[in-house]
Amino acid sequence: MAATGSPAPTPRTDASPRRALVLGGNRIPFARAGGKYVRASNQDMLTAALDGLVARYGLQGERVGEVAAGAVLKHSRDFNLTRESVLGSALSNETPAFDLQQACATGLETVVLLANKIRLGQIESGIAGGVDSTSDAPIAVSDRLRRVLLDLSRAKSPQQKLAALARLRPGDLAPSVPRTSEPRTGLSMGEHQALTTAEWGITREAQDEIALLSHQRLAAAWDAGFFDDLVTPYRGLTRDANLRADTSLEKLATLKPTFGLTLDTPATMTAGNSTPLTDGASTVLLGSQEWADAHDLTPLASVVDAETAAVDFVHGVDGLLTAGVFAAPRLLARHGLTLDDMDYVEIHEAFAATVAVTLGAWESDEFCRTRLGLDGPLGKVDRSRVNVHGSSLAAGHPFAATGGRIVATVSKELARRKAANGDDRPVRALISVCAAGGIGVTAILEAA
Amino acid sequence: MTDTYLNLVNSGFTKKIAKQLGLPRPVPLRRHQPGRPLVDGPVLVLGTGQDADTVAHVLAGTASSAATDARAADATLLAPGWDLDVRRHAAQGERYAAVVLVLTELTHPDELAAPVLALGSTLKALAPHARVVTVSRPATPDDGPAVAAARQGVDGILRSVAKELRTGATGNGVVVADGVPVTAPSVLGALRFFLSARSAFVDGQLLAVDSDGGSLPLDWDRPLDGKVAVVTGAARGIGAAIAETLARDGATVVAVDIPAAGEQLAAVANKVRGTALQLDVTAEDAGTRILEHAQARHGRLDIVVHNAGITRDKLLVNMTPDRWDPIIAVNIAAQLRINEQLLTSGDFTAEPRIVALASTSGIAGNRGQTNYAASKGGVVGMVRATAPLLTAFGGTANAVAPGFIETDMTAKIPAVTRQVARRLNSLQQGGQPVDVAETVAFLASPQAGGVVGRTLRVCGQNLVGQ
Fold first, then answer.
1. Out of A160, B86, B332, B364, which residue is the most buried by the measure of CB atoms under 10 Å away?
2. Is residue B395 a contact partner of residue B351, using CB atoms and an 8 Å limit?
3. Which of B260, B275, B296 shows the shortest C-beta gap to A238?
4. A234 reaches B (C-beta below 8 A)
5. Domain B31-209 falls in which CATH fold?
């Protein structure tokens, strides 16, 4: 593997653990913020996604090994969100669960974690998932008001109580609304991407083309019934509400830029080539081969491996959403694989430019040599292999639910391709999901 | 949908008024609950001859001791659960829960008087929700004229008696083909169905038993144990009730509906502990996909219930292709295509059952429903021609024709029209989705194997049509 450079591949010396298999998935259609799910809580949506999965695979009353899910925007009362959702679902109440949070990579990380547990033999089955509601986002009180209220609860005498209350100022009463800005830079995710977009010189046209393709491919998949066994309608919504099947480059070109307005370069990022705020939930059913056989389920894909990277976007030179660029080559090297071995590449479309930058970086001889420590470009991925059924620009992006959407969708596609090939050739997919904090999670899936 | 009128005439002050005014007074029907007795009281078996004796012995659970008919002995051994309090002579003051008239050996209309008048003498004292069931032979061109006259007379008697019954009582008949013994599984199965609360809204119907096919269940409360059933249009209303009823009777249910109905479909699948399959039945490969799902997930496919259906009412003078074509596509063409795929698969051959939903509109016609009636009449014809294709495998195909059933569909009828429509049958009320479901479950059961290509109405003896 001359092209992979450092770090050197670590040969697997342990007895190969058993396979962890993706057996299926279910999500609810994704709604735009303030849309059909405006009155639905994270728990409501995650429960619905679980119940749809249970119905599809006949898991009523089943004690699943473990359910792992999470939400990025989460009420403090939802500390046990996943377990509470399990209790409200048709699964056995003896199914354990835990919450996990890794910003937008939450969904993919739950898949990785449960797959690892299955590979180690700790569990036989698992349901990974994620949910997010920007419509039902938590609103907190200001830090000053919070301190006053806490002191008030601890005060014993009326004097102490009055003293605590006397510290309140009218401005303290303003609520604190969750933001998507990075705590260490104060920049929103879009502004961060705008910096990277400008650095790589990604044009408006290139971004709009990615957005258009996403909508066209997602619409085609819906029309072909591809999502009939991946999605269960919810609250009257039967398709992803953000999908614009009839959009065009002309329409996308009319949108005003929303990010990067203060930069020296032309602003290129619009509402059309950035993901909207979205509500939704997704789940992925995982299991061992034995568990799949015992439940008459046909495995779609196996979770081969995963790698997470992080970039120093605060003081370093790398863009906030570029960690996947770093994680993928390490992951491929570990398995002696190249991008050419990947039949599908799924790159979460946080922004169209995120996809363009990621693919561009892997194609760049200089970047791959200087930043990735490779001997040359990682490789070029034809767009026909990237996000083949559309991605977040069209479907929307309920933060923690995106990983589950991608894993279930690409697993079905892998199984379909393998069946169409009709031979033993491996069919693989690389998934890359960027996240706040400069994190990027990647994973390789292979048709079962 | 609540039937307010029915509630009013059954409670308090308004009940008294209704009685004094002589208004129609429908009663809430007795419906099946597993574990409840088949009938609440003694059963009178009328009629003379070997068949009447045999039926009486089977009902009493004493057929083996009678030892007159080997088949009856087998039947009771195979299917315990017949230990009714059977009487053979009408007694003054006795309150019968059911009267069974065995009239299979008629040779002349003169012979009708004795059993029918005996039946008449019991009617005043019938228990609430009582059952009258005739067992007779069909009148065919091969019969002598007097025999045929006597046999066809039973048809008129039964339909008239059913119209005279009150307080939730029903009258139905089993018409046993010549050469088929009265102990055939489907004769006993149909007899039991008509005696039971499962047939609450089936009234004035004569069900033909064409052969001695089928078998008696090991457990009358779970006749579908081990069977895998597919129900289309299962997300709501009658389809959801069918899924629940088949599951209650022991079947593993695959609930099918269009993807857009997935949320309700998932709820139904979870309730019956089956699986949900989001599938448009008009898809070219729907039958293949149904079979693949059932086999992959549940190992087999035994029962298919074609329930998915739509309406687009319009007077024929205003009918347009966009109102005609979808009805044909969903209500009948899809069923034909699915059946063909199942029948040619080679994997639908273990005593398979097809039960399709027809409608009284398809039998009697309905203003504004030429399209719907075409499709539902089509269902009646389809099962008649499909069943013979299945008999070689011990299978059969039959249809259920609902009358006025309380569903979302009938809830859309204007209020006054709806009130009138409900009263236009002998039970003077609308049926419930579960009433249709019970009949579907019966026709899907092992004991219905001798019912070949028939359509059974669930209409409370609606005044329209046959």
1. B332
2. yes
3. B260
4. yes
5. Rossmann fold (3.40.50)
